[in-house]
Request: fold
Amino acid sequence: MNGYHSPDEGDTETGKEETAGGKQQRPSKESASRTKAADGAENAVAAAAGGGTPRDRLASNSRTRQRIDSLKKNRPPFPWFGMDIGGTLVKLVYFEPKDITAEEEQEEVENLKSIRKYLTSNVAYGSTGIRDVHLELKDLTLCGRKGNLHFIRFPTQDMPAFIQMGRDKHFSSLHTTLCATGGGAYKFEPDFREMADLQLLKLDELDCLIKGVLYIDSVKFNGHSECYYFENPTDPVQCQKKPYNLENPYPLLLVNIGSGVSILAVYSKDNYKRVTGTSLGGGTFLGLCCLLTGCSTFEEALEMATRGESTTVDKLVRDIYGGDYERFGLPGWAVASSFGNMMCKEKRESICKEDLARATLVTITNNIGSITRMCALNENIDRVVFVGNFLRINTLSVKLLAYAMDYWSKGQLKALFLEHEGYFGSVGALLELLNPT
Reply:
C-alpha cells in the first residue's frame, strides 16, 4: 500500500483488550472528579483481579494504573499526538518521552512501545510519509515530562492508509481521542470513527496555528532562534539570513500559505482576526505545474523551477515601455503580465518546462506578496510572518517575498519566516490535548 505500514502484528496482540475501568476520557476540571475517577478505576481493578488469564489481568491492571496516574497528574496518557489535516498534506507531531522510569517501562503495554519505536526509529513511512529529522525539538518539557518532539508529514490522499495503520495497531485501546485541526478533521472524522474506533476532537485551525507559532517561538529551536529574516534582501550579494527576536510580536500579520492562503492580523494571543485570503496558494502552484510540466510532486516542481527562467514566460514592464515606467516608479524588470509572453506562438515554442515551473512559482508568490502588502497597509502593521508548507525547501519564494516586502514598501515592511513552516497547526492541536481544561 502507498502509505503507512504498521510494525509487526505480533507487537499488538494485547492491543484489543479494554481496561477494566472503560475507555479513557479527557481529565475533568475539578480535582474531586479526578479523585473519584481514580478511586473508581482502582475498584474496577480489584473487581477484575479474579477473572481472565494472568497475562490479561497484568495488561489490564497496567493500563488502568497508567490512567489513574494520568488522572491524578492532570495529563493524558501516552502517546501524545497533534494532527493538522490539510487539503494537500497531513502534519503530525509526536512527543517521545525520554524520562520513562523503569517501573513505567515494565508496566507499558506492548503496542505503545511498538508505536514509539516505529515512529522514532524510521525517517520514512511507506513510500510517502516523512519524518523531518532536522526539525526535531530535543529535551523539551511538556506537562512535566521531558522528551523530544517529532515532526511527520504525508500526503492527505494517503489518509486511508494512516487510519488503517491506527486500526492495525489497535490505537483506540491506548487513546480514544485524537486532537486534530484543519479541514480534514471534519472530512475524515467518520472514517476515523468507523474504521479505527477513534474519536477526533476537532479544533479551529487558526486558533491552533497561532498557539503553535507562539509556543514554538517561545521554546526556541534547540537553543537557536525559530524566527529569521533576510538582511539586505534587495542585494543578491549582501543578502544574509539573520535570527529575529519575536519576544514582543504584536501586532503582526500572519500569512499562512498552504493549499490556499489565509492572512491574519494578530494583536495578542487571544485577539486576532482573519483579514482576507486567496485561493491561489501552494495547491495552485503544484496543480498548475503538474498540468504544465508533467511533474507529480512538490519537490519535483520546485527542482524544475530552480533551473528555469520566468522572464521568458512573463511580460515585463520593459517589454511594454522599452525600459522603466519612471512616472510611477515601476522598474523595467517588474512583471507587467504573468505568462503574458505565452500569447505569442514563437515564444511558446522557445520556452522549456523549467521556465513554466519558474513562472508559475513567481506568479503565485508575487500574488501572495501583493495581497499581503495591501493588508499590512490597511491594518497599519509593519511586521509580516510567513508560514505554511508552501515555503518548505522553497528558498526561491522565501527570498522573493523578502525582496518584495522590502522593495515595494521602501524598507517599511519586514518579512519574517519560521523554521518549522507548516507544523504550527499540529503543535497547537498537541497543546490542546495537554490543556487540562
